[in-house]
Amino acid sequence: MEEEYEILENTVKDFNTKYVDNNSMKLENDEMGKEFVKMLADQGFLSMTYQPGAGKNTDIKAFSIVLENLAKSAPAISLKTLLTNSFLSIVNEQSILDEVAKGEKSGTVTFSDLLVGKGQNGKLLIENNRVKGEKQFVLGSDSDFIVTTLDTGELVLLRSGFKVGKKHKRLGFRSVGFASIVVDSDDFKVIDKDGTRMLQKLYEDLSVPVAAMSLGMSEGVSQKALDYAKVRTAFGHYLKDFQPLAFELTSQIAEMEILKKYFHDIVSSTVNQKEAMFLKVKALALAKDISKTSLQIHGGYGYLEDFGVEKFYRDSMALSVLFHHEEKDMEKLSGMVFESRAGFV
Amino acid sequence: MDFELSDDVKGAIARAKDFADKYFTEEIAERADSEEQFPSDIVAISKKEKILDFSNPWQVLVTIEELVRRDPGLGISVTISAFGAEIFMFFGNDAQKEKYMNPVFAGKKSLGLGVTEASGGSDVASITTEAKLDGDSYILNGGKMFISNGQIADNFLVLARTSPAPSPEKKHRGLSVFVVDAKSPGFGINKLHGKLGVRATNTAELIFDNVRVPKENMVGEEGKGFYYIMTFFNISRIYVAAQGLGIAHGALDRLIEYSKKYADHSETGELKEDMQLAIAEIATRVEATRNITYKAASYLFKFTPNPIVTSMAKFYAAESAVFSTQKAMELMSLHGLTSDLERFFRDAKILDIWEGTTEVEKLIITRMMLKEGGA
Ligand SMILES: Cc1cc2nc3c(=O)[nH]c(=O)nc-3n(C[C@H](O)[C@H](O)[C@H](O)COP(=O)(O)OP(=O)(O)OC[C@H]3O[C@@H](n4cnc5c(N)ncnc54)[C@H](O)[C@@H]3O)c2cc1C
């Protein structure tokens, strides 16, 4: 890895050691708090897609390294970073960009329109110059600014005039708001008339960042399993000595290392969409598998939050629902593989 | 071979369904889960209404299955009050049965079983809790980890070492089972918080600091505790398999319900083949789990337990529960993530761990098959 990226990786690791690892349960289960978000911003993690003074410019490799390494310790913090940067990449209002990049305010983008059928996540329309209605499944619903699509297809930025509605169950990422929002706002801006297309593009561009998060989660949780298996004994042996545990974890780590190489190849050149989707699909599946194995290796302790393993089990599943649609994504990918429409019957 | 259930058993299923309809509301299930609160009210009602009829183990089995299918946390909480009671049934004396077992079966008292320790649960023979004879009583020192009903049970069956192991290979000797009153001086209980799932159930760490237990509280013979516990697991694992069956079936219910409304949920409106095959696969697993669980149960309930089939049922049910909840979540997208399915997904994983991990069950199967020459 080039030196600048190595420095960045070490910066994130130091940040985890100093501010995350000792406090991760609160940061991931309760709330991150403004002060902590400010610290994330001060490190530049929240402004990977837009830098105040310098404008928009995403170094996908740097962005991915940040997400990957934050996810090793605390997936929820990585998700917060992903959402904030997604927001910054799509919004164009200078003052809002600066406030969000500096961690003074927060912003999110809703992707649920791409994941559920029409009319399944509420109704949001412009009536008499006001955006009115409700939107379900808003990840980051506790944000100050929200980018979302209307039923008529426009992508809008809501600056105010919305409040949190029904809170959804939260399998993962519990410190990131997940609720419906109730909107009655005249403080909005239409970003794009063809909002769904723009949102789709953003969602596709997130394939590599989501894969980076997934890989970070795999690395974080498997490290815990490796450490535990070296010290815990049963029947007079270290757990690492038992073939079923050692072989399964090893084989998943092999898969992880191969994916990491592929990931570094992808981010080191112009991102190819098909490869990015290959990576996302495989990295998400691995994060779920390796979390399951790592939890199992921890036995009863894996089932308790104190050991910091069960969160990966929840978060990896949640991530794979929030940023992957089994039917739609696979149909798209199959189309690319077959070079013609495929997998739709 | 007859796969038809008796009318009594069908009646138990119907009663369990009614009970769940009435009391297992989403609001109650969600509260118990989010607050990690044992649903004492519902458990009390279930006892009053005699939802579990211990005189017929088939009825107990299908009741567990049906209640867990509605909600695993509440279902297990309602059906776990007598955890360990079979140890009295098979190895206790009349006085112990009268004093400890009957009140549990009558729904008046709750029981817990303390085997696992902080240093390990799979390797039961390595436990270190000690019971030393002192006059007319034993003095217990040590601790137990992850004990279900920890704060709720009136009494616990506790495995402790009463004499040193004759050799490292024979560690399973010298262990005995005691019934311990939770109010005994020196008996400490710490509730464990932050479980991934089954958060309605109560789990605690038990601490024995010079707990004095009358000699007559030893269950069965001294030194035979390991055998008693293993015999018990060969019973309880069938009920755990029923929990797995309930969870897998619950996931199937939700996926089928979702697929019926698929036209509303999806843009295309068509139920594509990937979803159809997933439903078929989960349904097949549910059926296979039921067959193997009922087969294990039928051996046991005729007093000819078959530990190989029991372990097969337990691990297969656990894996099916985990598989089915995960698959359903993946296919139901945000609708699954924001519904009670997410609770099922978290709850399912416990089945791979408690009462013998999946790895341990598989080892038992092979070792017994090699020893006995088949299932
Ligand atoms: C919510 C909850 C409730 C519980 N309730 C009770 C209760 O009421 N009473 C009670 O006594 N216990 C209870 N338990 C404890 C439970 O039975 C143990 O957690 C379980 O037996 C595993 O023990 P362990 O956690 O110590 O894991 P370990 O024994 O340390 O095992 C860790 C890992 O190593 C694997 N492993 C161990 N040996 C081998 C081997 N030879 N080969 C391959 N892999 C191996 C295991 O499969 C597991 O994956 C409960 C646990 C939980 C989480």
CATH fold-level topology of the largest domain in chain A: Butyryl-CoA Dehydrogenase, subunit A, domain 3
Sheet with most strands: strand arrangement of chain B? 1-4-5-8
Strand order of the largest sheet of chain A: 3-6-7-10
The chain-level structural class of chain B is alpha+beta
Number of H/I helices of chain B:
13
Helix content of chain B: 40-55%
Structural class by SSE content of chain A: alpha+beta
Give me the Rg of chain B, rounded. 21 Å
Q: If classified by CATH, what would the architecture of the largest domain in chain A be? A: Up-down Bundle
CATH superfamily of the largest domain in chain A: Butyryl-CoA Dehydrogenase, subunit A, domain 3
Described by the principal axes of the CA atoms, the overall outline of chain B is: globular
Task: Characterize the main sheet of chain A.
Answer: 4 strands, mixed
Briefly characterize the structure:
Chain A is α+β, with helices and mostly antiparallel strands.
Q: How does this structure look, described?
A:
- The complex is a heterodimer of chains A (345) and B (375).
- Chain A has helices spanning 3-20, 24-29, 33-42, 60-73, 75-90, 94-101, 112-115, 195-205, 207-231, 243-267, 273-297, 299-302, 310-322, 326-338, and strands at residues 50-51, 55-56, 107-109, 122-127, 130-139, 145-149, 155-158, 162-167, 178-185, 188-192, 233-234, 237-238.
- Chain A has 345 residues and is α+β, with helices and mostly antiparallel strands.
- In chain A, strand 6 (145-149) and strand 7 form a beta hairpin.
- In chain A, helix 4 runs antiparallel to helix 5 (75-90).
- The N and C termini of chain A lie far apart (44 Å).
- Chain B has helices spanning 7-23, 26-35, 40-48, 57-70, 72-79, 85-91, 94-105, 225-260, 262-265, 273-301, 307-337, 341-348, 358-372, and strands spanning 111-114, 130-134, 137-148, 155-161, 175-181, 187-191, 203-214, 218-219.
- Helices cover 53% and strands 14% of the residues of chain B.
- Chains A and B meet through strand 11, helix 11, helix 12, helix 13 and helix 14 of A and helix 10, helix 11, helix 12 and helix 13 of B.
